[in-house]
Amino acid sequence: MNGAVGASDTAAGPDGSELDRLREIARRIRVEVIRSVHHARAGHLGGPLSAADLLAALYFHELRVRAEEPRWEDRDRFILSKGHSSIALYAAMALRGYFPIEELLTFDGAHSRLQGHPDMTRLPGLDMSTGSLGMGISAGMGMALGARLTARDVRVYVMLGDGECQEGEVWEAAMAATRYRLDNLVVIVDHNRLQQYGWPGEGPDGRTPPQAPGELVAKWQAFGWRVLHIDGHDMASILDAFARARAGDGRPIAIVADTVKGKGVPFMEGRFFWHTRPIKPEEYEQAMRELGEPVLGAPAPEVTR
Ligand SMILES: Cc1ncc(C[n+]2csc(CCOP(=O)(O)OP(=O)(O)O)c2C)c(N)n1
Known about the structure:
Blueprint: H1 16-40, H2 46-62, E1 77-80, H3 86-96, H4 136-149, E2 156-161, H5 168-179, E3 185-191, E4 199-200, E5 207-208, H6 215-222, E6 226-231, H7 235-245, E7 253-258, H8 281-290
Parallel strand pairs: 1-2, 2-3, 3-7, 6-7
Antiparallel strand pairs: 4-5
Helix pairs in contact: 1-2, 1-3, 1-8, 2-3, 2-7, 4-5
The structure holds thiamine diphosphate.
The site of thiamine diphosphate has 22 residues, from helix 2.
């Protein structure tokens, strides 16, 4: 089985069938996230699930990339700065045809190309190794500047977590991007209002969100960025934001995408508890049912870790 899904062939705008196609890809990403984490008996869930719609839109509609030629020099760059959500990125890449979908079941194994956090020295198609929160945006800023200096028509997309935005390095890069007027740099904040544990408070699951409502929008604006605030699970809004981000005005672009941690699996939604956690067999079956996917085969074989 290859099972790869083609990128959109047409240059036409996002009509209803294109939106449905992308929604189905997002569902497939969620299915592969659950299957792979269950198989590995370890891995992050909440953050990968919140990012699935954004990744489907990126890899199947927005990014100019060639799965069959991952080192193509003029490709757009994508950096998953919230590298702990790697399994969602791997699922999107496998579905897009970068590698066989079966390889997802090697996730987090000792000899796998699909490490718990993205390792660009192992997997062609990754533009940056990430996992230490806060660093991906600096790398992306450098790539966007490099594209400018070499006169390449390359756009750079970086996905950050809202908890990650507590890292000082994020704002150092944000200042530099404004200084260099990098309107080929697009940050996407997966604004799910939960982080790993957080503190008790008034937000989802009784936790204090990393930022107060509206705070991140105001912060990116204050740093001189053009901010688009959207529903990160609404495919039409996601595509519209990417299209608007292409009209450069000299400012880097921040898409603050409101999302739900654990989206798509109701018993995981809005629960910090599911940030990272092994799935019990009965939970696996329930999650697959909720995603509308048949539960295939016996429990996972052992993995070399
Ligand atoms: C520098 C650094 N500190 C701590 C961690 C451990 N860590 C991994 S994920 C995470 C929470 C991230 O929250 P957020 O950015 O909101 O991601 P999401 O909720 O989307 O998973 C933390 C603290 C890390 N990977 N890097």
